[in-house]
Amino acid sequence: MTNPFLAPSTLPYGMPPFADITDDDYRPAFEIGMQEHLDEIRAITVKRDVPTFENTLIPLEKAGQTLERVATVFFNKVSADGNDATAALEEEIAPLLAAHSDAIRLDSQLYWRIKTIHDQLDELGLDDESRYLVERYYAEFTIAGAGLDDTEKEKLRDFNQQLSTLTTRFEKNLLADTNDLAIVIEDAADLAGLEPGEISAAAEAAKDRGLDGKYLVTLVLPTGHPWLSSLTDRGVRERIMTASRSRGNRGGEWDTNQLVLDITRLRAERARLLGFASHADWVIADETAKNPGNVAAMLDKLAIPAARNAKTEQADLEAQAGHPIEAHDWAFYSEKVRQAKYDVDTAQMRPYFEAERVLQSGVFYAATKLYGITFTERDDIPAYHPDVRVFEVKNEDGSPVGLYTLDLYTRDSKRGGAWMNSLISQSQLLGHPVVVTNNLNVPKPAVGEPTLLTYDEVNTFFHEFGHALHGLFARVTYPKFAGTNTFRDFVEFPSQVNEMWMLWPEVLENYAVHYQTGEPMPKEFVEKIQASSAFNEGFATSEYLAAALLDQAWHTITADDSVTDVAAFEAAALAKVGLDNPAVPTRYSSTYFQHVMSTSAYDAGYYSYIWSEVLDADTVEWFKSNGGLTRENGDRFRSRLLGVGGSKDPLEAFRDFRGRDADIQPLLDRRGLN
Ligand SMILES: [Zn+2]
């Protein structure tokens, strides 16, 4: 038997040959794939010829295909249908892959060739996409440190090593402290307000720790806890909030203060070694925002109105409560006000969200209206799990777009959350078509029962399908630019935009029909949702912005700054932007800001969520003022934005689509921040 990863698939659309793949095939394919990739790179650098686009960039883009094939299928498997064997292999293979990509990105010979080509870029007469390819490679290699001399590279490895140890320790300490801080409740009466299922979960959690007969409230990230909105005992709420905010900040074994100082200082020193003023300058150089100044300008525009609105909301809550509102009261009273003022109960909407109808008459229907594409189920093409459905997507004229596969249901072997990934990434250079997958985690109903989605699940469905369209529509030459291979602060934009069609009247009427009676969903359900859409946004925006600004503050320190007191630094950073209202604590405090102090890779990038939402809100505004759900609008969005994938500067593509740079006003309107 030959290993199925060693040759390109012969199935329609290059679908990986899942029926032939076994768990034993991954490891040898990874080993062969990495070696082959290094050999291909060596074949480029070993030559003594003058570096050209043809003899360097083209073979570089063609290199590593076996590795690409196995990695794509393996990481899809690990997240969507993993087992003990794949989990063990992942742990083993992850550091090898990191070292493999470092070996290439820090290769001095390869860097010299790329730099030589980049230095004469204007004289080469390359087409736009090829030119951008050179620019991207040059930027990525430079930012990674390929241009450093050997002593400096040694230092860089040392920084990386130390940071890897410290960030891992941060995660470990945080997890341990979070567990230690779980709150023991002696009497069930103290948990009044919770659902019976939540109380029994708390009893179960206590039992797991040998505390039979008691109740345990375990902490979660971020600062807020989901039970704070329903627990009626103010003292218990306060205990939870206090414990939550003290994580990593209690002295002793699991304290993270020194780790925060060491991690941010080392990152600043590493940035200096790499030629950047700060860690944020280094990270954001490779994002669409380009520099921390642009990020600060955007966040600052939002901070003042968000803090002001939170104050107004606080006054409303105080009127309801009859006493001053503290951090541990906010969720409880805002839930009361929400119910009194808007009477929104999304649970009533479920019978109108039958999954198959949402898919065919909602998600697909909107895409057909916008882009003219059609979907045909292909039972003859096997996927990686029997639950996965495969659809062939075609243009209006019948020409192929690609395959869309949908893995809707939750199962023990699947990770939580929802996501999109590519099984085959389109590229002209390699002659690759495109296959994309959406994963959701909808509980499977009993046999014979319909799958009724929640409001949030429908929203997630439209969101993930937006990523899928981005992957399906990209038509690029180079594999590097395929589909969703774009910047972190841009990649959520197309998916956020696609959410707008969920409640678009023409789409909603078409799919939101009662699964038993066939009645359309009452209009007031949606009207209530829309009326309440800006409710509590002052709070939500403030707590998010506080965290995003804190992330920027920690990562714009320079190697010459010396910060010695985490709490004082945090307080000063928040006061400076007016986000220091004690009733609205930051979504994460420094000592438990896992996104940016660990290996999660959102360091200096926590701003991304709202950065792409600015583009999203402005685009939604454009669709609305141009007639909404029309082929003309869809074609423009597809050809100027989705279709270009990562093959040009995303903000340039946005400008081309929108006719100007993004305006922040629609986001301010959406969040009621005017
Ligand atoms: Zn997303």
Produce a short descriptive summary.
A hairpin with a 5-residue loop joins strand 4 and strand 5.
Radius of gyration: 26 Å
Distance between the termini: 66 Å
Mean model confidence by pLDDT = 95
Biggest β-sheet: strands ordered side by side in the sheet: 3-4-5-7-6
Q: What can be said about the biggest beta sheet?
A: 5 strands, mixed
Count every helix, treating DSSP H or I runs of 4 or more residues as helices.
25
Strand content bin: 5-15%
Annotation, overall tally of beta strands: 7
Structural class: mainly alpha
Helix proportion range: 40-55%
Shape designation: globular
Low-confidence stretches: none
Bound molecule kinds, no repeats: zinc ion
What does this entry look like structurally?
The mean pLDDT is 95. This protein has 674 residues and is mainly alpha-helical. It has helices at residues 26-45, 53-62, 65-81, 84-105, 108-119, 128-144, 150-180, 196-208, 234-245, 257-273, 279-284, 292-321, 330-342, 355-371, 455-473, 493-498, 505-511, 523-531, 537-555, 566-576, 594-597, 608-625, 631-640, 650-658, 665-670; strands spanning 183-185, 215-217, 374-377, 389-394, 400-409, 419-424, 435-442. The longest helix has 31 residues, at 150-180. It contains 25 helices and seven strands. The strands form two sheets. A five-stranded mixed sheet has the order 3-4-5-7-6, with helices on both faces. It has a two-stranded antiparallel ribbon with strand order 1-2. A hairpin with a 5-residue loop joins strand 4 and strand 5 (400-409). The site of zinc ion (ZN) has 4 residues, from helix 15.
